[in-house]
Structure formats: C-alpha cells, structure tokens
Amino acid sequence: MDCPRCSVELAAITQEDSSLNRCAECGGLWVDGSDLTKILLHANLPALTAIGGQINVDELAGTCPACSVDLVVVEGGEKLALHYDTCESCGGLWVEGEDVDEVPATSTFKDAAAELAGFCRAFAKKK
Questions:
Q1: Confidence (pTM)
Q2: How far apart are CA 24 and CA 11, in angstroms?
Q3: Which of 3, 50, 111, 117 could form a disulfide with 23 if both were Cys (CB 3.0 to 4.6 A apart)?
Q4: Residues near 7 by beta carbon (within 8 Å), at least 6 away in sequence
C-alpha cells in the first residue's frame, strides 16, 4: 500500500486484528473504516460521520491506497483549520503527519491510535 502523498510504501503498525499504516516520509496515517471505528469507540468519540465537516470539492486529495479511487477532502475543526482525506468507496481515512523534521522510525499502535483519536477530537471542535 502506497502513501497518497509521497507514493512510498506505508509501514504497517499492527495490534491483534487491527492495523494502521504510517508513511516514513511524511508521517501521515492511513486507517481503514473498521479499524477507525474501533479506535474512536475506545477513545469515547462518536463515529466520524457524527463529527461533521465539509467536503472541499476544489481540493485535490490523491488516490486511496487501499482501492485506488480518488480521495475526498473533508474540512472541520475550529475555523475549518483541519482536514482529512477519506475514500467514499472503502471508508478509509488519511490524516497528514505533524510538521516534524524527522518522522519516528517506529511507532506503537497505541501511540498512533492516540494520535488519530486526538486529531478526531480536535476536528470535532467547532468554535
């Protein structure tokens, strides 16, 4: 599976029957729809559809690493300052990595899931 931004191979971060994928180049995270639902439930967050957001049809998002269809950009959070890319076909979600000089070589599933949950929590804020 390749990164929708960098086109490099995504590294799988697994735990039991769940998996996240991180790009070693840009730090972005890919999660499929069912694993995202599990992460949100464990973080006491509502489903992504309940969090809201606006589709930005003018923004180019790249291609879904799982099924190779175009991703859709969804904006939200305070003053629509955050965005994620989603696949309308498979339900996967792409979150860009934080602006850091160096992407960590390894990441635990727990850390990556907490990063995703934190993003979704911030995305849900509407002030």
A1: 0.88
A2: 7
A3: 3
A4: none
